[in-house]
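[audit] Reproducing an earlier prediction to check determinism. Same input, same settings, fresh worker. If the tokens differ from the archived copy the diff job will pick it up downstream; this log only records the rerun itself.
[audit] input (471 residues):
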Amino acid sequence: MILNEKILQSSFRTECSPQTGGTRAPEVPCRQSKAVRQARGRVAILLAAISSLAFFSAPQTVGFAKTSKAVGVTLSPTELSFGNHPVGTTSAAQTITLTNSGNAKLKITGIAITGTNAGDYAQTNKCGSSLAAGAKCTISVTFTPSASGSRTASVSVTDNASGSPQKVSLSGTGAAPAAGLSPTSLTFTGQLVGTGSTAQSVTLSNKGSAALSLSSVAITGTNAGDFAQSNNCGSSLAASGKCTISVTFTPTASGSRTAAVSVSDNASGSPQTVSLTGTGTTTAGPAASLSLTSLAFGNEPIDITSTSQSVTLSNTGNAALSITGIALAGTNADDFDQSNACGSSLAAGASCTIVVMFTPSEAAAETASLSITDNASGSPQTVSLTGTGTHDVILSWTASTTAGVVGYDVYRGTTSGGPYSTLLNSTPVNGTAYTDQTAQAGQTYYYVVTAVGSNGATQSADSDQGSATVP
């Protein structure tokens, strides 16, 4: 600022004695008028203000921080699980919230289902093509499994935010029923024409992971009218559930009659079927049937009882089978034995088991027969029995616990305590049993066993001695 000095000077006029004749008058104090004193005060204030202005006279710069613009995306939740859901049906919708967590507009170029089983999921949304800073929108997702088992995909959001596309994982399991029938066939034998058989049962099981919806259980096929069914299955069978279908046979004519139980449902392979066969007869009566007509026991050491073998006796007729005797007959009948639970009568369609064993008394081929006497045609029914007695000596021992044992050698002697000079096996025995087939009748033998090492040569000390006297 530039000051007007004249103005300042005029403001400071004082009242003093004038000079006379060039000679200065005696010094007299100058007196300032009241107006001058007031002006002088104003000048002091003005000078102070000017000094203050001078301090701030340099130009000042004021800075402002710039705020950057950015978009951000938040998806919540980050995964959706639909659990088990029936194949071919649509689940309830689940919701994802998309939030623009940035301070600039979010530009959305696409929202889609992607991944392995993308076709099993669908989405709808209200997000549009952009989302203002801080704004939110929702994405609704449904699950319609096309097959059973695990089904996965993702919701994928493509936009102008960092990390695009952002994803939400989707998982669900397709649940489907699976129908099973057991048994898959039923046979009705020897049923008198016009009479009903005893019921036979079929079990229907749902082995799947969703409810089995049943539309019908029916008898179909060539002679459907000769069979009937009843069941407790209802219209639906829960996963792992079971129900029973009971079937009867009432032949309208003699001879072979066929049909099927047919189950229609929502499982793969529907309808499931059980084949039905039956035989109509014009005369009533029992019929005896044996599962085997011969039993062969092979070689068996004298006085040693064989493993048992069995034969099944069935009444395939339409009346009770009266059993008057089950016995052993033939040359060596005494060397065979039988036991059974057949009793004195066998109902139509029933069966029982006969168990037979062989204990040879001599070193020779032996024969006998099992004979069943009853009121059926062809009585007595018979099963031929054969076996051979031998002088074999059967040895067994406890396995060695020593590491590296690859087998055993068996030695025989004729004197108690040894020597055991006869090696019976040509290679180490792989196991803990051996049959001496070279023993002679009337002889007493003494046996020991040694463990053989991995090199095939190293042997353990002899085992304890065992002995046998051959009949």
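[audit] rerun output stored. Observation attached for the diff report: The chain has four domains: 73-175, 179-281, 288-390, 393-469.
[audit] end
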